[in-house]
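Final report, closing paragraph on structural work. Over the funding period we assembled a curated collection of sequence-structure pairs, and we close with a single example.
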Amino acid sequence: MKYVERVLQPGETVEYMTRLHWILYLRAIVLLVLALACVIASAGVAQSYVVLALQIAAGVLVVLAIVAALGALIRRTTTEFAITDRRVIYKAGILRRHTMEINRSKVETVGVDQSILGRMLDYGTVTVRGTGGSFEPIPFIGEPLRFRSHITAG
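Its predicted structure, as stored:
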């Protein structure tokens, strides 16, 4: 059972849920491309010691890519964003959990920051500010403008 489903109050319904964008996997993708480049480069080299060095580099890059991909996968699957008819809910983490909730009636502003790449791929950082406090910026949210629209529509 998801965290959001466990913390719903009686009669409260989820209006919108989103997740972190796939861009979290970019580091793993880049490392895999570099590993592939090392393998391709080793095919065109005649010296055996250079071939061995390139193959070792490719192996190390693949291991680093796997570690990066696993980290991104864990981060993406353990982070939840939900907008209910009453609250905005954010939960991150598995062993060390971080949660924030704010009543929708207490939301003053919702800020969205997107880079050029973020606008092209539809991800960004959302900051929800409430009365008497603020939400911390939450980076890499998929469809941040839609997320903001659901918060402000209530």
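The chain has five helices and eight strands. The chain has two domains: 25-74, 83-152. We thank the funder for supporting this effort.
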